[in-house]
# Entry
Amino acid sequence: MNKRWEWNRRDFIVKPILWAGAASVLGGTDILLANPLNETATGPVLQRTLGKTGLTLPVVSMGVMNADVPGLLRRAYEVGIRHFDTAAVYQQGRNEEMVGRVIKEMGVRDKVTIATKQPSKGQTQDVAEAKKRFVEGVESSLQRLQMDHVDILYYHAVDSVEDARAEGPLEALQSLKKDGKTRFVGISTHKTQAVVNEAIRLNLFDVALVTLNYTMAHDEGILSTIERAAKSGIGIVAMKTQAGGTVRPDAKLPKMLPPVSQTALLKWVLNHEFVTTAIPGFSTYEHLEQDFSVARSLAYTNEEEKFLADKTFSAQAEFCQQCGECKEDCPKNADIPALMRSHMYAVQYRNTGMAREMLASVASGRGLDACDGCESCVVACRNSVQVGRKIAQLKWLARNHELSC
Ligand code: SF4
Ligand code: SF4
# Structure
C-alpha cells in the first residue's frame, strides 16, 4: 500500500462554459487560449510550441509521478491540462496503468500529449542487447498505457555524457520513432549542462526534460545551455520547478511553505520563454488548481515578488542540483546525488516508493550501505545542502519505514 501522508480528495463542482477559441498570439510562440471548462477561469490559458515537434501545450502540464488517484488526472484534464508525463519506473508501472486507464475511460487520447520514459540505468554494453531491452521496455509501457504509441518517449535519467551517447538506447529510440511507437524522442536528465550540451551536439532529440528552478537563478551555465538547446529546436520541458515542493520538515524553512511560494517558483521558471511547459508533480486537488492558475498569468503578485526577493530561499531550500561536485569528498565513493534525490522523494514528496526505487538503482556499495557505520559525514555541498543531516534522516527512514532495499 502506498504510504501517502496527506491526500485531500475534496471534490470540485465543474460547470462547463463555452469554448472561446484561440485568442491571440504573444511574442514568437506564446498563444493564449480561453479555457473551455473551468467556471472559475479568470483568463485565457497560455500555450507554447514545443520546439520542432510543433506540439502546442499549455505552459502548465502534469507530472503524474506523485499521483495515484485517478480523480486527480480527470480533474487535471477538466481544468485544461493536456500533457501528462509518466514513466515505466513510477510505482513499478502502476502509474502508466492509471494514466492509460483514465485517458481511455475519458475517451480523450487524441486530445492529449502522453510522455513516458525508459531508464538509462542498467544498460548493457552489448549494443544489440541494449537496443532489444529498451524496445521491449517500451512495448511493456505501451501495453500498460493501452496505447499503440506515445507522443514523447524519453531516454530517462541520463546522468552522464557517456550514457547520452550509448548506442543501444539511441538506436532503439530511432527505430521506435520510425515504427510509429512514439511521435517524438526526448532525453531527460538531472545533469543539465553536460547532458543537454551533448544532446545538442547529437542532434537526435526533439525534446529535453530538464531540472530548472529558482535555486539555479544565478547559474548562467545552466540557463544558457537550456536556452541554446531551445534555439536549436529542442523543445524544453521543465521539472523540479518548485525545488521539492511545499513540505520542508528538514530545512531552515517553515515546515509547509505557503501557496504563494509555489506559484512564484513556477512563474519564475515559465517566465523564461525558452521553457515550453512545466510538469509540477502535484498530488492534491488544491495544488493542482493552484499550479494551473499560473497558466493564466505569469505576472507576479506583490506577495510573489516579495517571496522571490527574499534571497535566503535558495540557500534554505537545500535543493540538490545533482551537480556531482561533491563526489570527491566521500571517502567511500557514495553516490551522493542519488542519495539526495532519494531523500527529496521520501521527505519532501512523501513518496517512499520512489525513494526506495531510487535507492535500489544505486550500485551496490555506493548507496546507504556505503554510509553504514560512517558516523560523521565529511561531504561539503557547494549549494548549502546539509548532506550529512539528510543521510542521517535517510538511514533513520530505512530503519523505520521500509526504505531499505
Ligand atoms: S549535494 Fe551539493 S555538491 Fe553534491 S551533488 Fe548535490 S548540489 Fe551538488
Ligand atoms: S555518511 Fe560517510 S559514506 Fe555516507 S556520504 Fe557521508 S562521508 Fe560518505
The pocket of iron/sulfur cluster (ligand 2) is lined by residues 330, 332, 334, 336, 370-371, 374, 377-379, 388, 391 (CB under 6 Å). The CA atoms of residues 261 and 307 lie 7 Å apart. The chain has two domains: 23-309, 336-400. The longest strand covers residues 182-189.
